[in-house]
Every structure is written in structure tokens, then in C-alpha cells.
Specification:
Strand order of the largest sheet: 1-3-4-6-5-2
Structural class: alpha/beta
Shape: globular
CATH architecture of the largest domain: Orthogonal Bundle
Strand content: 5-15%
Radius of gyration: 20 Å
Order of helices and strands: EHEEEHEEEHEHHEEHHEHHHH
CATH class of the largest domain: Mainly Alpha
CATH topology of the largest domain: Phosphatidylinositol 3-kinase Catalytic Subunit, Chain A, Domain 5
Helix content: 40-55%
Number of domains: 2
Length: 322
């Protein structure tokens, strides 16, 4: 991992925040040399490591589909606050904007390095290899295949049965959280373990495809125009790792949650932690406080209603009403 060294401190760039809450990096003079590019994930957008005089961050440009803007960069901050409320280790994010070489304005995120450089970040993909088969729909990975291959990998690494059980349990709990916040891009490269003095699941990261905020803005407005539509969209918003049943596509995320909570420890975690009632207005107020700016009404509404509708059904499954 290589970093572009900036002459600015992190405190100095914080004061560059604009009226909409974005830290404006235009005058910070970042060059983003090729050797600082993050090698994981999509390579078709800015995704570079920068060292702000000792504070190491990843600058990531927005993710666009068909060149339509969405609110995914807000999702990172909102999910971070939800996770913190539930005492889940979370990567730290902020909003940034900058211009590309053609002078086009780009919005995105700045995420802080979440592990010591002496340690190693190993994604599930690093541990088990490719897990996509042509017959699988929406290029998802089958949950049980992933769990079986993870268990084998941990065993090959020499970990005890108790340690393997702990590592698998950490992943299952995180997968349940991902379902709760409607993460649609948590594939096997977006779950990782940190190998250092200990070996454990990393903080949660890369949540821009959550809470329906990765939909383009016209689609978000359409979803918000009718609550029945919103409920339907929430119900068909699916995880990337799950219990694959091609004959019952519509119950995919529910079947996945049912499979996870067969493990009594996961069930207890869902019941006692993830089923805590969260005041989304307070979560969104916290994000506004962090960025010193108001969120657009559509952002607040889609995040709030998506979470509350998924939470409603999620809890019904956990308590046995569904």
C-alpha cells in the first residue's frame, strides 16, 4: 500500500468543508499517482490512499450507474452511526468533493485507515478464492458454501475449533447487520479479517449500497412517492451473500436470515442487539452534526423509511411472527 503525502494536516482539511457538508479538496493539490490506487474493488473511479501528515485515508469517488448521481456517499455515514449505536466496530467516513483531470466535480468519501500497517487485511475472497458460479442469480455467493470454505481456510491456517467457531460467528453476526441495513454490495471482498497479534473480523466498511441510497435520485423520488412501493422495494432488496433458492427469489433475504439464526448465538445477537429500536431521526441528526450541514429531505426520508420497514420485518422474523 502506497500513500500520496499531503502538505496538509487532517485538521486543516476539515475547515475546507462547504455549506453542504463536503470537505472541498480542490485546493489541496492531490495528484493521485497510480501507485497510490487501492487495488481492491472497482478500478474505474478515484480510489487512492493519502497521508495527511500522519492520518492515512482512502479518498473514494462516487459510484455512478449510467452516469446518474445517487446518495451512496451519505449511506457510509448513516450506516456508520447506526453501527456505532449498536456497538458494532465501524470504519470512519466523511464527505469529500474534488475535481478530476477534466475539471468535472466529483463527490465521494474519505475513509480512515482502520488497521495498523504492520497487520494484514484479508478479505473473505482472499481466504476462500472465487465463489461465483454461472448458475447463481445476481452474482451472489451461497452462504453455506462461503461458511464451509471459510471453516476449511481457518483450519488450514492452524486455528483451534473454538477460535474457528468465534471467527465464523463474527461473520454471521455482521451478515445479519448487513441484511438489517439493506446492504446490496456486501460481496466476499467487502467482509474482511485483520491478521495481527490477534485474528478477528475487521470493522464494517464499504456500505455505500445501503438503505436504498445507492438508487439514482429520480428513482428515490419515485420510491418515496408511494409507501406501498417503498415497502415492495425494501422487501426485494437483497444481500450479496445468502441462502440461494432460485425457485423462491422473493424470500431470499428472509431465507438467509432464517439460516443465520439457526445458530443460537446469532439468534441471541439479533434479538438482544439488532432488534434494539433505533430512532433514525436522531441518527440522521448526528450525521448533520458531523458534517455541519442539513441533509436533503429525500435523503432523510429514504434512509429512515427503508431502515424502519426492514427493521419491522426483520424483528417479526426474529420473534417468530413470520
Amino acid at each position: 500500500m502506497q500513500f500520496e503525502d499531503s502538505s496538509y494536516t487532517i485538521d486543516e482539511i476539515y475547515i475546507l468543508r462547504d455549506k453542504d457538508g463536503f470537505i472541498d479538496l480542490e485546493n489541496v493539490h492531490l495528484r493521485f499517482p497510480i501507485n497510490t490506487k487501492e487495488k481492491r474493488g472497482s478500478q474505474d473511479r478515484i480510489k487512492n490512499w493519502v497521508n495527511f501528515k500522519g492520518t492515512k485515508v482512502l479518498i473514494k469517488g462516487e459510484r455512478k450507474l449510467l452516469d446518474e448521481r445517487n446518495y451512496g456517499y451519505y449511506a457510509e455515514l448513516i450506516v456508520e452511526e447506526i453501527g456505532k449505536k449498536l456497538n458494532i466496530p465501524m470504519a470512519h467516513y466523511d464527505l469529500v468533493k474534488l475535481k478530476d483531470k477534466e475539471g468535472k466535480e466529483i463527490y465521494g468519501n474519505m475513509s480512515f485507515l482502520m488497521y495498523d500497517l504492520e497487520d494484514e487485511l484479508l478479505s473473505i475472497h482472499d481466504l476462500i478464492g472465487d465463489d461465483i458460479e454461472d448458475k447463481q442469480f445476481i452474482d451472489s455467493s451461497d452462504l453455506n458454501r462461503v461458511l464451509d470454505k471459510l471453516q476449511k481456510s481457518f483450519k488450514d491456517m492452524g486455528y483451534s475449533e473454538d477460535k474457528i467457531k468465534e471467527l465464523i460467528l463474527e461473520f454471521k453476526k455482521r451478515q445479519a447487520f448487513s441484511i438489517l441495513v439493506l446492504e446490496t454490495d456486501k460481496h466476499i471482498e467487502n467482509y474482511s479479517y485483520i491478521k495481527g497479534k490477534d485474528f478477528s473480523l475487521s470493522p464494517n466498511y464499504d456500505s455505500e449500497a445501503s438503505l436504498l441510497l445507492d438508487n439514482d435520485i429520480p428513482t428515490i423520488k419515485k420510491i418515496l412517492s408511494d409507501y406501498t412501493t417503498l415497502k415492495e422495494v425494501v422487501d426485494i432488496t437483497l444481500p450479496r451473500i445468502g441462502l440461494i433458492n432460485e425457485n423462491n427469489f422473493n424470500s431470499y433475504w428472509k431465507d438467509t436470515l432464517d439460516e443465520l439464526i439457526i445458530d443460537d448465538d446469532v439468534y441471541d445477537y439479533c434479538l438482544n442487539v439488532l432488534c434494539q429500536k433505533i430512532d433514525m431521526d436522531l441518527i440522521l441528526d448526528k450525521v448533520e452534526e458531523r458534517i455541519n450541514a442539513k441533509l436533503d429531505d429525500d435523503i432523510r426520508l429514504i434512509a429512515k423509511y427503508a431502515y424502519e420497514e426492514r427493521f419491522r420485518v426483520f424483528k417479526q422474523i426474529i420473534v417468530g411472527d413470520i
